[in-house]
Amino acid sequence: MDGRAARPAGGASGSRVTQPDREREGKQTVTSTNQDDIRARNVRTVRTFYRLQEAMDFERWLELWAEEAGQDIPYAPEGFPTTVRGKANLEGLYRPLFEGFAEIHIQDLRVDPLNDPNRVLVRWHTHGPLKNGGLYENDLVGVFEFGEDGRITHLTEYLNPQKVNIHP
Question: From the first residue on, what is the mean pLDDT of each consecutive set of 10 residues in the chain (168 residues)?
């Protein structure tokens, strides 16, 4: 040991905690709790997103998106946009996709909240018999971003474009 006494948080050894220290500590606790609440809300939204996909409840699924929401699909297959901006354009892309599925099954769903409470990393497998008799199977990764109101503001989705056999 170097002979120095350990100092308690908030002041010198033996000093008492002052009111500003208490207020600062209280704000940290509130901020942490608030971030935890936001993170938990966004994780619930992601789980609802996939539950509604499986239920094929397009209208309620679309309500999860903010009006100004966007999506990036960096490895979009031929016939798909790499960028979609605005809820109306998301509806235009996804409504025919939903309608092309006989069923949608989300498997191996892994939802990982990130340090930023408004971002959630998700990994999943989609298994979907198609109305045309085909079968869609793909492993995907997505990063969801959320606004203050808890709606999805952005989704970046990574998938294997060679496995996409359904088109808008």
Answer: 40 43 43 86 98 98 98 93 98 96 98 97 97 95 97 97 73
Query: Which DSSP helix (H) or strand (E) runs through 152?
Result: strand 152-158
Is the whole-model pTM more than 0.85? no
The answer to whether position 145 is within a domain reads yes
1 located within any domain: no
Counted domains in the chain: 1
Would 84 be classed as within a structural domain?
Answer: yes
Please tell me the predicted confidence (pLDDT) of residue 166. 64
Q: What is the pLDDT of residue 5?
A: 42
Name residues whose C-beta falls within 8 Å of residue 39's C-beta, 6 or more positions apart in sequence.
113, 117, 120
The continuous run of DSSP H or E covering 68 comes out as strand 65-72
What are the beta bridge partners of residue 125?
A: 107, 139
Q: Which residues pair with 149 in a beta bridge?
A: none
Residue 42 is part of which domain span?
19-163
Total residues found in the chain within this entry: 168
Contact 148, 61 (CB under 8 A): no
- Compute the C-alpha angle 161/165/168, nearest 5°: 95
